[in-house]
Amino acid sequence: MSEQNMIEVNSIEKRYERKIALSSLSFVVKKGELVALIGPSGAGKTTLLNLLASLLEPDSGELKVDGKPLSQYADRRQRARKIGLIRQQFDLVGQLAVIHNVLAGRLAEWSLLKSFASLFIPQEKDKAVDALKRVGLEDKLYERTSNLSGGEQQRVALARLLMQKPEVILADEPVASLDPARSEDILAMLTGLAKQENQTVVASLHSVEYARKYFTRLIALKNGDIFFDLPSHQVTEQQLQELYQLKELN
Amino acid sequence: MLSFDLHKRKLLTAFLLLLFAWSLFGVNWQEGVLHSSGLGTAMEIFAAMFQPDLSADIIRLAVHSSWITLAYATAGISLALILALVFGILASGVLAGGKGSRKMMKGFFRGVLGFMRAIHELVWAWLFVASFGLTPYAAVFALAIPYGGILGRIFADMINDVPEEPIQALRAAGASRLQCLFYGYLPSVKASMISYTMYRYECAVRSSAIMSFVGLGGLGYQIQLSLDDLHYDEVWTFMYFLILLIILIDGWSNMLRKRMAL
To answer: Considering the domain boundaries, does residue A69 fall inside one?
Structure first.
């Protein structure tokens, strides 16, 4: 694992109305790290990921990806090469065939004409087939995406990420709507593929068990602040209990 | 408060009922309600319903008129579809970058669509007949403009109702606004667009028939001529052809919908 800093978060703050969502958060993620964000609901995990994906703007503080402030990734091609996003299953266009949802990962690189033509005669089909093979769905190439099960749809989203090949993958509750077996399947695939490509992953998860099993580092958020930030094997039961404890019990 | 309101409403109801009863005294019951021979005519028309004129000449004329009516409607709705796609996509504002320009674009093009459909196709027909004369173009344009306005407005609303998440995901994958249109918005609304357009096609056939009263030829024109000659049996022949056209289009629309549901 190289020592290159992939994500630098420097005392960022975000509030909604008067409620503080994140209060002066700072951490650094190195290239190739697999980071899980854990913590109770409303702790700010999704807000943090949306800030990193530049779906939201921080009120103050600085976000750097690969040494450059996020605001400098205005060009959509550059940004797509750097940062990829995967969320719960309704991220795909259900009415399109699977292959087009997978090829959508190439849109940043394609001209308008090529992307339009591809809807009739799929372009770079080999790459799409390859990506679908890696997630085990090569037989569903021309199936309508909405006909697939939840787990299969999330695998299609993974195949799209494989086409996009971003250096950083942001995953917001990627398995929240899946049963335990499918969840493990998707997480194993996500982290496995990221390791092969030497990608950096930041994922928010509800399940601490999965976070410890599949990720190398856990960042726990509580009330918009970092509660602990440790390699997965160093996290103790005591800390986890305190993390999820209800306020009234303190 | 509530009982008082209820009370007031009852008073109003009683007042309106009295007003209606009083207005009945104003009607001249001896003449004026029905045409002196109106009932007889109505019976004749009703009777003719079961005895449409099926002679070869009339059938040939009906087929020809149906063809003209269908042709106007088809050309009109095709042109309307093109107008609606262009203006509807612009009026949805999804191609605009910033919030400000999106608002302006939406406002302007929704205004254009509103203007197109505010004027009824019959009025457009008068205007075009006045300027172009009795040509097929008059009928086609008269249909295309208001129908383009109606379709465009609905298309814009459909596009605006597409869920945000898949579009955000496409943007995150680096898609431009036009790419998002082809990969996100349009596939999501394609089925409803086609089914609504088919419904409007049906309406266009009816409008096209009515519009021929202006003198543009077609089923409506023949119905008018036969009515003037008191040939109710012929009127019904033409009516049945009109109904047949509508049923055919409805069947086609159902077929399309079934195929798309796969």
So the answer is: yes
Q: Within a domain: residue A127?
A: no
CB contact under 8 A, B173 and A81: no
Decide: B237 and B51 in contact? Cβ < 8 Å.
Answer: no
Residues of A in contact with B169 (CB under 8 A): 85, 87, 91-92, 157
Residue A239 to chain B, least CA–CA distance (Å)? 35
Of B185, B121, B189, the C-alpha closest to B149 is B121
Amino acid at A7: I
> A204: domain range?
5-94+169-249
Q: Is the Cβ pair B183, A79 closer than 8 Å?
A: no
DSSP sequence for B207-230 = HHHHHGGGTT-SHHHHHHHHHHTT
**CA–CA gap between residue B64 and residue B122 (Å, rounded):** 22
Question: Which of B166, B174, B188 lies at the smallest CB-CB distance from A80?
Answer: B174
Predicted confidence (pLDDT) per residue in B98-122, tens digit: 888 999 999 999 999 999 999 999 8
Q: How many CA atoms, within 13 angstroms, populate the side-chain half-sphere of residue B154?
A: 18
Q: Look at chain A and report how many structural domains it folds into.
A: 1
Within-domain flag for A102: no
Residue B34 pLDDT class (50, 70, 90 cuts)? low
Question: Is residue A120 domain-resident?
Answer: no
Residue A76 has a pLDDT of 86
Which residues, other chains included, contact B261 with Cβ-Cβ below 8 Å and sequence gap of 6+? B191
Candidates A85, A112, A144; nearest CB to B172:
A85
Select the residue of B163, B182, B190 nearest A115 (Cβ to Cβ).
B182
For chain B, say whether A135 makes contact (Cβ under 8 Å): no
DSSP code of residue B185:
I
Nearest to B163 among A79, A90, A115 (CB): A90
Domains and CATH numbers, chain B: 75-261 (1.10.3720.10)
Distance from CA of A213 to the nearest CA of B (A): 27
Q: Does the beta-carbon distance from B262 to A144 stay under 8 Å?
A: yes
pLDDT in tens, A140-164: 889 999 999 888 898 899 999 989 9
Phi-psi region of B234 (alpha: psi -120 to 50; beta: other; left: phi over 0): alpha
